[in-house]
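User: Can you predict the 3D structure for this chain?
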Amino acid sequence: MNDSDDLTRPETLIEGWSELPDSALDWAPGQHLGPFRLRRQLGQGGMGIVWLAEQTAPLRRDVAIKVLLRNGRSRLSEAYFEVERQTLAQLSHRAIAQIYDAGRLPDGGLFFAMEYVPGVPLDQFLADNPLEFRELAGLFIEICSGVQHAHQRGLIHRDIKPQNILVRVADGIPQPKIIDFGIAIGTDGGTDAGHPSSGAAYLKAGTRAYMSPEQMQPEAGGVDIRTDVYALGAVLAQSLLILAGNRSSADDEAFVSSNARDALEQSRGGGWTESTGSQATADTTSLRMLPAELRAIAATALAADRDQRYESAAAMAEDLRRWLRIEPVRALEDSRAYRMRCFLRRNALASAAVGLISLSLIVGSVLALYGLTEARQGRTQAEIAQGLAEQRRNDAEQLIEFMLGDFAAQLRPIGRLDLLDDIGAEAHRYLVGQSAGSDATSALNRARALRTLGEVQSQRQEFDLAAETLAEAAALIAPWQEDVSQEMGELHFESGQIAFWRGAVAYRQRDWDTTEAHWRRYLRDAQAFAEVSRDPQRAQWELAYAYNNLGTVAEARDQPEQALEYLQRSTELRRGLVDETDAGGVLGLANNLSWIGRVQHALGKPAETWRSAAEALDLVVAARLDAPDDARLRQAEINFRINLARLAGHVGLVEPAVAHLRRARRLAEEDVDNDPTQTRRQTQLATIAFLLARLPAVSQDEAGRAFEQGEQSLAVAVSQGLAPQQGIELPALRQLAALHLGISQETTTGVERKPLQNVLDALEDRQDFDTDYFVLLELAAEMIRTLDQNGFAPAATDLDILRGRLDAVPPARRNNLRYYLARRALLETRTENAKETEELAALRRTIEKIREEVLASGQIASG
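Assistant: Here is the predicted structure, written as structure tokens:
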């Protein structure tokens, strides 16, 4: 026998057997097996038994001794046992339990001593110690590395499962050990290990829940290393389910890899397959909260067709590493948007960008100082240095402009403007420290950079800081604003952008006077730009934006007629400009129509409101056929469907309301799946769910599921922080849905009244009769009526407050449909005299007439 064979056949001659019973089943702690002193039994199966023992010579260490039982002995079982001994002897990897010694008992039975792993099976470990997803990925990279080590030595494990991966924590890091190579087989010698092994095709072995299709049907062409890749995918999928809160997935008997694969595909938007069972459907919801990349990696490894899997365990590990490095993973579709998201998520980006900006600014400032110093030493040298300093300053400003311009434009769609925080602070210190410059070009460059910085600060809700930055930008170009020559076109364009953002900051702070002043400045700049611009279409777009902005502030100031005029002018311009293939342009036109519908609603024109809202929805739905993944269009469709559903519900058109909400709900679920951390998306889904749960045409089961979904999204949104209006509306909608479903509420009347009290308090604080006012007015009236119908009699003060807030509405605004609904709900709860009874009858007739007008519009289809 050659040396290499000796290395793979450890065989210890054991002496002193007399103290051991004949049967391993009768062994007891304290007895010796050669140099090993038995301590306690670790486990027992049909074929063997495992003991924890202490090796006393030549080294002192804990070992696990695995013994093949006499009653489990057969030619096949001995062959498996021998395979495991020989396999482990060939392997030396930190993720694989090592063999130390092997031998044969006096009765001919086999045993071996191996590394003792004081860990627990992977599924139990994850159930007891929920890991962060990055920790799980790191753990699986180690597991894949161990499997790859075996594959490189021509061995296929064939029984990878959580019970054969023991995990312990060392120095705070989970460390896996792969065990039980008892049914491992070799790949064909001299062949690529990635191809099927024909010799492996004759015996089906392993654990069914983790078996690949080719392992289940060995006659179909054998197994290869991708069989183990499948099992790795199954284990990763099960681990994800456990971390997603599906405790039943920790039960090996409840886990089925094909169901897990279907659940993964469904969670990623894939279709239903015949193998999908109820478990897959249940698992899908919890899986959607997990990182898309990890789900994709597991699904790829679990592909039924092995040619679609990773070609090796190493390839799977590399995809996990790419996810940890925030790089695009192979398992997901390679697209520019996905690569950009990964690029911008990498933490090194912000520090590198800040460093680049800082270095440029330092160099520019130092060279400028150097130029001033050299000026004292001679005119020629000073001129050279001054020119160099000016060049460096221009370079620094161009870099700022790029980072806060093109770079910011890439960050904006994915909501990562936070990466510009440090860059912005560094840029601001530099820009405000420089002289204004004597030429318009220099002033324009610096103003543009400051404007973009102000935009970033505004979107980060740092309004005071943004207002200061934008004021500095406006001051830079103010000296040239009266020049309407063609050369000043870009300066007027930039002046308009600055004015827009100054108005936007004031709008967010509900300062309508300041908002209007800035947006009128924006209109003047847009008109000046239109006079001198060499790009008429671009100029017309600016005018459309300016009119739209003035329409929104007029609506906020309770000037609906003026708002409608501005918005219609903007819409007319957009209709002549929009390109059906331009998603942004289509979205702008649709939003214009939506605003028009909102104002028409305030003016008491529900049929016109419906037409505007329906046209807006039609535009977005058509645009999404060409750009189905455009998040902006998806958001717009959700909002438009909610608005139409609410309007339909107001006039009793239940079926269209249900259809719109069901479609909106599916889209909102996609939005939440894409990013569950965005509060806006969670509140949107909660709103839809609670509205749907209240509609009478919805079955009890569907309404109950919708209510539960609303509860979940509301809980997430509350934990993330709700905006004030949402913090009032959503609990009220939740209570209305609960009362409709007969879901038990808290027993005390005080708790029952809390959402209502919050709505009434908010109403009393309102001074503007805007859309939010009428939403709260309708909610308060509906809650009072619904609570009364459910046995919670309203307090007299509640009725008095509601009557007072209804009476406070100016007569010109009382043709608002929500006003009619609120007044009707109040009178249906309490009528105090014959006059109010007559008023109630008149209101019912008015609302019925509105319903007929909406029906007559011919656009009540659900879309």
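The chain is about 60% helix and 5% strand. Residues 35 and 59 are 9 Å apart (CA to CA).
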